[in-house]
Amino acid sequence: MVSPALDEILIGESEGTRALRAQILDVAENNEATVLVTGESGTGKELTARAIHTCSARRDAPFVDINCASLPPNLLESELFGFEQGAFTDARARKRGYFEMADGGTLFLDEIAEMSTPLQSKLLRVLEQRTVRHLGGTEDLPVDVRVIAATNQDIRALVPEGRFRSDLFYRLNVVPIHLVPLRDRAGDIPSLLEHYRLTLNARLSRNCTGFSGDALEALCHYSWPGNVRELKNILERILILYNPSVIEIAHLAREVFSPPSAAAGPLRLTLPPEGLSLAPFLASVEDELIRLAMERTAGNVTQAARLLNVPRETLRYKLSRILPAGGKTGTELRRQGSP
Question: Which of 317, 322, 315 has the alpha carbon at shortest distance from 338?
């Protein structure tokens, strides 16, 4: 049976998400095995680690997380293992490391592939001996910690290049969990949209009641290269900029229908089952592109016309339709917003 806590952490009912919940529950029953979570950026690797911790017997102990790419190697080492007074310049007092702070609980090492090779050796020693030694110290301190590591890289491919120790890889990869990208679990998108609509409404003091049919259809067919993180950020941006009562397809022009680069291939659009009003839809996309061009050129009509590859007078005419009062600056266009 899936715990309520797990339902709250992992949103969605696709086959992949249900399988992930089941895998997390299986892993949570074992409090010792290390876990390696892989997947694209934005797929929810930290959420998965927290879910494992929350569903395990370690739930009442600390969950400590650190991004291995955010600190230089020497500082990361001192943060992980702690240090003694005088171990290095500015080490004015003894300090516990993250392993000690997470004692009894879970230590989450995000972006583990960015850890330096010498530090990988020291991490391997801690995992095998279940003890840590402070920098500048001589005493081995026992720690009871489950380690969950995560990366968006293919660590196995880094081993023959000498960028990641094979013994550490196998020590971390006791229980591998791979998170599929959002584009491959599109059935979760409506649930995620609803979840973030409600949470963002509360946080931003908005009163968005939902999505129009064609907007929901477009969002469900978008490829989401930034995964769940991108979905949340797009909703947040729409609610901040437009404060709509209902999110319409016109609000998505900037995000979902922005023209790709030449290398990205042709623009992909979807047609809702119930159809749409073609002229208003095309007009809303055109208006949004004009706004973008005017913002990028700080309201310079000549430069914006070059960006859009249209005659200057044509752009002036279209601007008069968007802003009948004649305002042409990027600021005025942003203030105009979408309906």
Answer: 322
CATH architecture of the domain with residue range 185-336: Orthogonal Bundle (1.10)
CATH class of the domain defined by 4-180: alpha beta
Chain segment 261-318, per-residue pLDDT in tens: 444 445 556 666 666 677 777 777 788 788 888 877 778 888 888 888 888 878 888 8
Q: What is the DSSP string of 130-150?
A: SEEE-BT---EEE---EEEEE
Contacting residues for 277 by C-beta, under 8 A, at least 6 apart: none
Structural domain spans, the chain: 4-180, 185-336
Task: Quote the pTM value.
Answer: 0.71
Residues paired with 146 in a beta bridge: 106
pLDDT tens, 72-87? 888 898 889 987 766 5
C-beta atoms surrounding 81 within 10 Å = 24
Cα 176–71–159 angle (5° rounding)?
Answer: 40
